[in-house]
Amino acid sequence: MKYYRQIQVALIAALIVITCLWLFSCDSFTETDLPKTQLIKTAVFQDVKTATAALSDCYAQMRDYSMITGNSDGLSSLLGNYADELTYYGVSDSPLQNFYNHTLLPSNSGVSVLWNSSYNQIYAANAIVEGVDNSTAITGDNRNRLKGEALFIRAFIHFNLVNLFGDIPYITSTDYKTNTMISKQTQADVYNQIIADLLEAKELLPETYTSAQRIRPNKYTVSALLARVFLYTENWQLAENESNAIINKTAFYQWQDNLDLVFLKDSPSTIWQLHPGVAGLNTMEGRTFIFTSAPPNIEAISPELFNAFEAGDQRKNHWLGSVNDGTDTYYFPFKYKLDTNSGTSQEYSIIFRLEEQYLIRAEARIHLGKLAEAKNDINKIRQRATLANTTANTSEELSQAVLQERRVELFTEFGHRWFDLKRTGKTGTVLSVIKPAWKDRDNLLPLPASELLANSHLLPQNQGY
Amino acid sequence: MKNNSFYKGRLAFWYLIVFGFLISCTPALAKTALPTLPSSTQQNQISGIITDGTGPLAGVTITIKGQQKTTISDFDGKFTIRASPNDMLIFSFMSYKTLTIPVAGRTIINIEMHQDATSLQEVKINAGYYSVKESERTGSIAKITAKDIEKQPVTNPLAAMQGRMSGVNITQATGVPGGGFDIQIRGINSIRTEGNSPLYIVDGVPYSSQSLGFSSASSGILAGTTSPLNGINPTDLESIEVLKDADATAIYGSRGANGVVLITTKKGKTGKTKFNLNAYSSFGTLTRTLDLMHTDQYLSMRREAFSNDGITTYPSYAYDVNGKWDQTRYTNWQKELIGGTATTNNLQATLSGGSSGTQYLLSGTMHKETTVFPGDAKYGKGAVHTSLTHSTEDGRFKINFSANYTADKNILPPSDFTYKAAVLAPNAPALYDANGNLNWENNSWTNPLATLNGRYTATTAALIANTLLSYQILEGLELKTSLSYTDNRVEENRINPSTMYNPAFGIGSERSTLYLNNASSHSWTMEPQLNWLKKIGKSEINILAGATFQDQKSSQLAQTGSGFPSNGLIYNLAAASRLNISSNSFSEYKYQAFFGRINFNYKSKYILNATGRRDGSSRFGPGNRFANFAAVGAAWVFSKESFLDTSTFLSFGKLRASYGTSGNDQIGDYQFLDTYDVTGNNYNGVIGLQPSRLFNPNFAWETNKKLEIAIELGFVNDRVFLSTAYYRNRSSNQLVGIPLAGTTGFSSLQANLNATVQNSGLELELRVEPFRSKNFNWTSNFNLSLPKNKLLEFPNLESSPYANRYLIGQSISIQKVYHYTGINPQTGLYSFEDYDSDGQISSPNDQQWIEDTAPNWFGGFANQLSYKNWSMDFLFQFVKQKARNYLYNTSWAGDMVNQPIAIGNHWPVDGSNSQTQLYTTGENGEALDAWSSYSNSSATISDASYIRLKSVSLSYTVPTKGSAINTARVYLQAQNLLTFTNYKGADPENQSSFFIAPLRQISLGVQLGL
């Protein structure tokens, strides 16, 4: 019994020792297991399925937010209003109205949404490139496909950015320390990187599609963008080569003669389209553009575009819809026919299609002196619209004819009209007539004011703003 | 990442085993280690009766000086104890003067005890890990006790604190049962709105204040999510202490930055078994309603609007003026939709008692409450509270077990009727048709009562259980361990059946929706502590060392289902044709700390208190997990100095000061990990994953440096007691999203920002006892807080997303709005100051007018009066502040919504000083633009100061002498009885156009003690 005192002391000492031990091992106590409902980045890229989910999210983001989205935040709407394709009818003082009126300020929220969501999507693409490169589990074809698609996405978004904003930073990593103070690069440098990324993507991607509906880019999708890039950079021969590669791949891409079938999900002329998401949904373009009562809610086809169609052009009948409110008739883009859900989805949003490749090739061929062949390409487009063959003969006339066909063929598709006017130096002559507020500065969008404040290396602001 | 959970668990396991073994040895140890004193002299049985001059005094502790022997007086004041003729007996009882009486050979000793004049200074204040005498306190601690809580018929413990504590600003968000409260202890410290909650500790157990609710289910009715504090039953509480300064909060380290709320539940007391029954019923109605236009005023506004817009033929949808609706009809919609009476019934039964070794308390509460809305909404709550205390005969080993279990069920309409009641046209049709069915008046309106076909139901259960073991190893050295467990569960659902819509629209159950939320959180905490007390001459040293280990796991599954085959199956998620999982989360929070306190006390005159804590939290990345917090506090009781000792005027004087740090880790779990989230974006059947955030593992705690200087003065035997404190808290290292260039892919990065928010202020508490006599007593307590909030630093504020919200040198509750300059006499439209002189009123350049909505000062004035068997308590609460008024949320004048009568003062009829611009139906674009700027202008922020008779209680103690009943008390209580305010809106406290204001409750109750 007399040892109790000692036992007691020993126990207390043991307690204190254990407490101390615990204190020294405290780092391990405060370490928690990994969250069960999120994935660690490294784990995402240890499995093709989760890596694919990350890539799929990029497409979903592109479909739903900014640049190529079909809603009114996307280029189809913004640049349609900015150029001469659409007339704005929505609420006053909205970012979209500022595009329409050419009263853009550096603080315009539409502009900053374009900028920020684009770089957010670029971040996600870079994360895939880095994740796949560092992955030990994703190899071979899987690796090539994921990386190739991510490089394609990165190049595509930068391509749109450089055309909208001029000199921009080309982001190739996820490191915020570098990216937050990054400087602008010249347009030529940006294009060089776009081309380098696309050439790498072309090497990595297979010819075949990963799914039946062409909802993920293949090698030819990369070619389609390359053709456009070479067109914009006036590398005529390379542009012709790329478009040739697609047009000659008749096993994949066939001409669709029926104008009403061009924008269906199974159209054989589609090179790349975005899946609408949930089964039964159709395109955002349909929901944005189609209206059933007048005056329209947001926007309608402008009189300039309406009058640009030649008499007898079937595209006017098939691709424009109309609503009459008793006094006036309002027209809307009716390429996509569905503005509601259907049992199964009928229409997907088409980003690249064969017709554009014919027009790219025609333009390239004009500059390469292959006038007759160029004329054939133009007529291919005109014939489907039941128009007579073009009467243009000289390279000047043919260039004009291509521009006209691009206008009525590719209208309200991601700002083709604006980019065409810009790259051919016609913005001022065409738009100053119909936009009273037109200024030369409008060739480029302003850099978002908040971005200039956040990163002084982006200075100077684009000229005139 | 290393995952060695077993290793961690094993240590805990060993710890428990060793401690358990130690405890199991204690009775044996106690017997042998402490030899009983040899009884040198013969002992006699001594008995007596203790009275307070008027009646017997139960519960008085009688000890023999220098011995362990203790007894307690029974209910009749009787006691017996064995003592030697030479012994000294010590009689002690809380708030009474302790008496030391020599036995002097007597066997019967009758004693009369008297209340201690300075007793309040002797009261022990709970400071969490330790308790201090009020007079020797170095920190800033405010307290309310069961006495104050019981006098208010409230369901949330925070409600009982309103107006009673300086520096603590509490507002009730909605008058609906189960709704939320907002508490700010000494202002807003964090720029993150979600990072400003205090730490709640219930009986030593950290209680998560994070709501488990799903806002899609509850936000329409509860003004947010369900309040976790509903899990604490106010009538089971003994006291609530609020720790405010560094001296008091530094020992809570990383979680003390926003103050600590210590909640202590009731415990059994030694004495005869007591059964106590308390029942009350209460009726709740609205305190204030808006003065809205009557039909004639409303219709004339509408007609004028049409004529202003040049419309002569009323359009088909203008039912109110085009003849479709009866233009002589008038309904007071506020009376109809929110003017009901809410009833509350509360019943509590308590059994308590105990011997000197074991005390117990068992209590059960039933609570039922309805709302002022039409329909059958009801709230029910059941709470069980148990407390068991045992100590060994020698008093060295003690165990206290307490458990609180609260379950409640809240059935409410899916949305609040307050806004509808304010905007419905006064000549809108009747709610029911002749057959008693919902009237849709030929589809010309949306019947508000259709909402009642929807329903919000929340079931919550909360368990807080704690075991506190303590063992006195040596004289003055005590080992304590607290082991506790909490479990919170919420099951919420909201149904939107198709019957909520007009049947004419042909909407079927394919549009019915169910929102469902299942969430739970459980945690265990272990806190071993060692406390050493040593007296050396006239000094006393008290050293405390301890550690905390806490592990909390939370999970949530929130789902939305829509498209049901029938409304009868709406609660069955399996029947939904579309299912969307809004959130499926699981998180774990682990927390560990080592804390200590050294208190040095010289003659109760000079007191030095140093506290510190080393904290580790799993919410931060490796390398940033640990941080140190410390504070030092000092007090000088100068009234004990010889030069003041004899002063009869100044009875007490103390100067105290403290400085130190505490932190804030409320940022959510796993933020430092580089993760991918499920976005729910579907792409060809693949659900997307996207990077959650920019990866920054390097963020760390928010730190709050707190300084306080206070003086406490008691005059005339402390009958006038004044305490004044100045505090200055600087919260820096703000954990916010730091703005980044968009080229990073994100707009911000979770990181520490070098911004500093300062909260400073003056707090004043005055207690006066104008009367103190045998029959009549009157005590007044007055408190006043003058807070000031200021943003001291914010690098690159101009380029941050906060540029339009904050200004250096201004409060962080400012709003930058347009400056309303009156009606433009040319256009008849609202006009504003054009700050950038560009001829346009546009955001953000013209939103330069600054209004601060933080309170300028607030306080309370409480009085307790008692005369013989009667007692009366009342509390006035007052706040001086500005707030958004009704103009912020009402539509433009002339629209098809009702307006306050004041809006009727308009241009051009009432000239350029009119309240309201030109009426328009909405056709006048310029008028709409002006109205839209007006809604966000200085005109919509106005005085919202108020004085409110927050609580009144009148009670009568029925004389029960000679009956079986020991005590009987009847009481009448009222909450929010009167409100004096100039506020333009319904209620200056919740300031909401959408949620019902706190109700005026009048209750009648009875309390019986057997």
UniProtKB/TrEMBL annotation, chain A:
A GO CC term attached to the entry: cell outer membrane
UniProt entry keywords in alphabetical sequence: Cell outer membrane, Membrane, Signal
SUPFAM superfamilies, A to Z: TPR-like
Pfam families: SusD-like_3, SusD_RagB
PROSITE patterns for the chain: PROKAR_LIPOPROTEIN (PS51257)
Gene3D superfamilies referenced in this protein's UniProt entry, alphabetically: 1.25.40.390
Domain SusD-like N-terminal: 99-231
Subcellular location: Cell outer membrane
Domain RagB/SusD: 322-465
Domain of life per record: Bacteria
Protein family (similarity comment): Belongs to the SusD family.
Name assigned to this protein: Outer membrane protein
From TrEMBL, chain B:
Residue intervals of the TonB-dependent receptor plug domain: 135-260
Signal peptide range: 1-30
Cellular component, GO annotation: cell outer membrane
Record's bilayer topology term: Multi-pass membrane protein
Primary subcellular site in the record, as a coarse category: membrane
Family classification: Belongs to the TonB-dependent receptor family.
Protein name: Outer membrane protein
